[in-house]
Write a structure and sequence with these properties.
The protein is an alpha+beta fold. About 25% of the residues lie in helices and about 35% in strands. The strands form four sheets. The protein has a six-stranded mixed beta sheet, with helices on both faces. A five-stranded antiparallel beta sheet has the order 13-12-11-14-20, with no helix packed on it. The protein has a five-stranded antiparallel beta sheet with strand order 15-19-16-17-18, with no helix packed on it. This is Glycerol-3-phosphate ABC transporter ATP-binding protein. It comes from Brevibacillus choshinensis.
Length: about 350
């Protein structure tokens, strides 16, 4: 079993502030969990505590049924892949991958078997005799992952392993890591600040801020119903649109009123008593351009951004910027007036004071 349990885990460097503040989480056997959050939120610290290279202030870490707080890192059955490849420059790829096994006194034949198996998986057989200086960034990262694979760990811990790669290589390596997880059938915990990586890779995502979990769920759960505006911002690319709105009751049905545009919601009428003034959050892909002037907002084109076969229309509504994502079928001119509609079933409604999503109360 390679499940992981975090029980009220804390890390405190100073008396004034916790880097991690009594967090608990169950990570299932063979799950791919992504820790997502801004720099300084504690995600890398958490990964190092699981690995055993960062001291635990309070709480327990279990791998399977065993509390590993006092277990040496080398005996925890984990392997870590860092942002820095940390390859020995004077050793060949083969020697880099073999080094940890030699330290553990793994027999030569077994070392060779494991290295060949890892090289086959990562398609780096032709690189085994090369030095790190003769490798590209993507090849170095494959070697670093291969060095982890040969340890045959129960758990893979990855700390922003793709952040040093260019955009094309990052896309390629994301796919390779996803395939690797499926092939090895092991538990993966992956740290990133890139929401595209998180959504692409994770079975579940744990969004962190200020040493705590803000929301844990599948990518679709978090995208569809973020618990608050912080999460909605962090899991949105392009950025989510926000507009001031009010809740209103019409014949027993709750609507979001955005300057006269009425969008039906499934919120209970009781919500209006506490939060009549709200913020409507609408993702760019849930908006559309229409000739219809009914129940739409008139906006002005600022500029267009072409992304492959899609276009992002950057618009101005009153003093707010607004983005609509649509298929690239026609061009729009700066200053052009457009009518924008919104799909009501995808609109999130946030309390203006607490910034909590009112949908999550249900």
């Amino acid at each position: 079993m390679s499940s992981i349990t975090l029980n009220a885990l804390s890390k405190q460097y100073t008396k004034e502030k916790h880097t991690l503040d009594h967090i608990s989480l169950e990570i299932k056997d063979k799950e791919f969990l992504v820790l997502l959050g801004p720099s300084g939120c504690g995600k890398s610290t958490l990964l190092r505590m699981i690995a055993g290279i960062e001291e635990i202030t309070h709480g327990e870490v279990y791998i399977g049924d065993v509390c590993v707080n006092d277990v040496e890192p080398k005996d925890r059955g984990v392997a870590m892949v860092f942002q820095n490849y940390a390859l020995y420059p004077h050793m060949t790829v083969f020697e880099n991958m073999a080094y940890g096994l030699k330290i553990k006194k793994v027999k030569k034949a077994e070392r060779e078997r494991r290295i060949k198996a890892a090289a086959d998986i990562l398609q780096i057989n032709s690189l085994l005799k090369r030095l790190p200086s003769q490798l590209s960034g993507g090849q170095k990262q494959r070697v670093a992952i291969g060095r982890a694979i040969v340890k045959e760990p129960k758990v893979f811990l990855m700390d922003e392993p793709l952040s040093n790669l260019d955009a094309k290589l990052r896309n390629e390596m994301r796919i390779e890591i996803k395939k690797l997880h499926e092939r090895l059938n092991s538990t993966f915990i992956y740290v990133t600040h890139d929401q595209v990586e998180a959504v692409t890779l994770g079975d579940r995502i744990a969004i962190m801020a200020e040493g705590k979990f803000r929301q844990i769920g599948t990518p679709m759960e978090i995208i569809d119903c973020p618990v608050d505006m912080f999460v909605a911002n962090f899991i949105s690319s392009p950025p989510i649109n926000y507009l001031d709105a009010v809740l209103m009751n019409r014949n027993g049905q709750t609507y979001v009123d955005i300057d006269g545009v009425l969008l039906e919601t499934n919120l209970p009428i009781e919500v209006m008593k506490d939060s009549p003034k709200v913020v409507a959050g609408i993702r760019p892909e849930h908006c559309f351009i229409t000739e219809d002037t009914n129940n739409t907002l008139e906006m002005e084109v600022l500029f267009t951004e072409i992304i492959g076969t899609d276009v992002l229309l950057h618009l101005k509504y009153k003093t707010s910027n607004f983005i609509v994502k649509k298929s690239f079928t026609e061009m729009y001119s700066k200053g052009q007036k457009l009518h924008v509609g919104m799909h009501a079933n995808h609109v999130n409604v946030f309390d203006k004071q607490t910034e909590k999503n009112l949908r999550s109360r249900q």
